[in-house]
C-alpha cells in the first residue's frame, strides 16, 4: 500500500503509527506496487515473524490381529460362597462342644422347724348338740335271707336361723368309705339356739350285702351347710355317747329297738388369726435357731391339739397348737459367683469336694461339656442351678 508524504505527516501528528498486520511465515507477502517518481513513498517495516513448532500427531496403529479381553471367572464365587457357609455352620455347631463349659447343680440344706405353743384368738362356744339315732333289729334266730341293701335312717341337724332343704338322692359317705343315698327330701327346720332344728329321713346303702353295712354314727360330719360364721372354723367337738334299748340282753323278743345318742360341744374360732399368729411364732423361732440365711419353703402346717373358751363374754379361746415348717438355705447370686471363682479351673472331684464343704450345700452335681473334664478357667463358662427338694 502507498502513502503520500502529506498523509504520512498528518497521520504522525494526530495518531500513533498503526500496527502493521502480521504476516505468517506460511503466507507470501502481497506484491508491492512500483513507486511513482514524483512522490516520496514510505516503505512499511519488515513484517513480524511468529516463531512456532509444528507438532505432528501420529494416529494409532490398528493391529489386524485383535485379541478380545479375558472374562473373569465369576462362577467360582458360587462354590466359594457355599463352602464358606458350610465352614461357618460347622464352626457354630462344634464350638459349643469343643469349648469347655460346666453346669453346677446345687441342692441347698433344708431344715424342719416345729414348735408347740399356746395362742389366744377370738372364738366362741357353740351350743351343745344332741345326736340321736334309733334302729330296729330282728331277734336272734336261724333263717336264710338273700343279701339286700342295708336300710336305715339318717338325721340332719340345722344350726342356722333359716330352714334348709336336702334333696332326695343325696349321697353321703361314712367314716369307713361306705356310701349311702337318701330316699326322700329332708326339710330341716330353722334352729333356735341352743336348740337345733332336726329331721330324720330314710336312706339305704349303695351296695348290697355286708359291704354296705355301717355302724351307728358312722356318718357324723358337716353336710351341705355350716353353723359357723364366715372366717370361722370348727374344732372337732368332743362327744359323750349314751346307748339304750327297749330290751335287755337275754330277754325273749321278736324285735329290739336300740337308741344311741351323743351330746357334743364344739368351739368356733377365727382361723385366719390363728394361722397368722402361729406363723409369726414359728418364723421367729426359725430365725433365732437357723439364722437369716434360711428362708421358708412351702406352707406352715398348724395342728390344733386342744382348745377351750377362757372368756365366753369377750369371746376369747385358748388354743394349744403344733406348728411346723421347712426352711431352706438361700444361696444368693453373690454367693454363687463366689463359689464359681473357687472351683474354676479345678477337676470335677476337686470342685465337688469344695462345694460340699460349703455350709449351705447338701448335695451337688457337676456336668462338664467338651473333651476336657476339667472345669473352665473362665468363670463366665460356669453356670449354677439351685434345685429344691420340695
Question: Please, could you describe this protein's structure?
Answer:
This protein has helices at residues 5-14, 77-98, 271-290, 333-343, 348-356, and strands at residues 101-108, 110-125, 129-138, 149-158, 164-166, 171-173, 179-182, 186-188, 197-208, 232-245, 255-270, 294-311, 316-329, 361-369, 382-386. The protein has 390 residues and is of the alpha+beta class. Among the domains are: 1-54, no CATH class; 132-139 and 149-227. Residues 1-27 and 39-43 have low confidence and may be disordered.
Main beta sheet strand tally, sense and closure: 6 strands, antiparallel
SS-derived structural category: alpha+beta
Q: Please give the count of helices.
A: 5
The helical percent reads: 10-25%
Beta-strand percent range: 35-45%
The average pLDDT score comes to 77
Any chance you could write out the topology, listing elements then pairs?
Blueprint: H1 5-14, H2 77-98, E1 101-108, E2 110-125, E3 129-138, E4 149-158, E5 164-166, E6 171-173, E7 179-182, E8 186-188, E9 197-208, E10 232-245, E11 255-270, H3 271-290, E12 294-311, E13 316-329, H4 333-343, H5 348-356, E14 361-369, E15 382-386
Parallel strand pairs: 1-15
Antiparallel strand pairs: 1-14, 2-11, 2-13, 3-11, 4-9, 5-8, 6-7, 7-9, 10-11, 12-13
In short:
A hairpin with a 4-residue loop joins strand 12 (about 295-310) and strand 13 (about 315-330).
Which keywords apply here?
single chain, 390 residues, alpha+beta, 4-stranded antiparallel β-sheet, elongated
Amino acid at each position: 500500500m502507498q502513502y503520500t508524504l502529506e498523509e504520512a505527516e498528518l497521520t504522525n501528528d494526530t495518531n500513533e503509527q498503526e500496527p502493521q498486520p502480521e504476516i505468517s511465515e506460511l503466507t507470501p507477502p502481497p506484491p508491492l506496487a512500483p513507486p511513482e517518481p514524483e512522490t516520496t513513498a514510505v516503505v512499511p517495516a519488515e513484517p513480524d515473524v511468529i516463531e512456532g513448532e509444528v507438532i505432528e500427531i501420529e494416529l494409532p496403529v490398528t493391529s489386524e490381529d485383535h485379541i478380545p479381553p479375558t472374562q473373569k471367572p465369576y462362577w467360582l464365587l458360587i462354590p466359594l460362597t457355599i463352602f464358606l457357609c458350610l465352614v461357618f455352620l460347622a464352626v457354630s455347631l462344634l464350638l459349643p462342644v469343643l469349648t469347655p463349659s460346666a453346669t453346677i447343680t446345687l441342692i441347698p440344706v433344708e431344715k424342719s422347724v416345729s414348735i408347740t405353743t399356746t395362742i389366744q384368738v377370738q372364738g366362741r362356744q357353740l351350743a351343745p348338740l344332741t345326736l340321736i339315732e334309733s334302729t330296729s333289729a330282728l331277734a336272734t334266730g336261724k333263717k336264710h335271707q338273700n343279701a339286700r341293701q342295708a336300710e336305715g335312717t339318717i338325721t340332719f341337724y340345722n344350726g342356722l336361723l333359716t330352714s334348709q332343704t336336702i334333696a332326695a338322692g343325696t349321697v353321703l359317705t361314712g367314716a369307713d368309705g361306705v356310701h349311702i343315698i337318701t330316699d326322700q327330701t329332708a326339710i330341716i327346720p330353722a334352729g333356735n339356739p341352743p336348740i337345733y332344728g332336726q329331721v330324720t329321713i330314710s336312706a339305704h346303702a349303695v351296695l348290697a350285702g355286708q359291704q354296705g353295712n355301717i355302724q351307728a354314727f358312722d356318718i357324723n360330719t358337716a353336710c351341705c351347710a355350716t353353723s359357723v360364721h364366715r372366717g370361722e372354723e370348727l374344732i372337732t367337738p368332743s362327744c359323750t355317747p349314751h346307748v339304750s334299748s327297749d330290751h335287755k340282753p337275754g330277754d325273749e323278743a321278736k324285735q329290739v329297738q336300740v337308741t344311741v345318742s351323743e351330746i357334743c360341744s364344739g368351739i368356733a374360732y377365727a382361723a385366719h388369726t390363728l394361722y397368722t399368729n402361729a406363723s409369726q411364732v414359728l418364723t421367729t423361732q426359725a430365725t433365732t435357731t437357723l439364722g437369716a440365711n434360711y428362708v421358708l419353703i412351702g406352707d406352715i402346717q398348724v395342728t390344733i391339739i386342744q382348745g377351750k373358751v377362757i372368756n365366753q363374754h369377750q369371746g376369747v379361746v385358748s388354743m394349744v397348737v403344733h406348728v411346723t415348717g421347712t426352711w431352706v438355705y438361700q444361696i444368693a447370686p453373690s454367693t454363687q459367683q463366689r463359689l464359681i471363682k473357687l472351683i474354676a479351673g479345678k477337676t470335677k472331684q476337686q470342685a465337688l469336694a469344695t462345694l460340699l464343704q460349703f455350709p449351705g450345700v447338701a448335695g451337688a452335681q457337676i456336668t462338664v461339656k467338651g473333651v476336657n473334664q476339667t472345669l473352665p478357667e473362665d468363670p463366665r463358662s460356669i453356670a449354677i442351678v439351685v434345685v429344691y427338694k420340695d
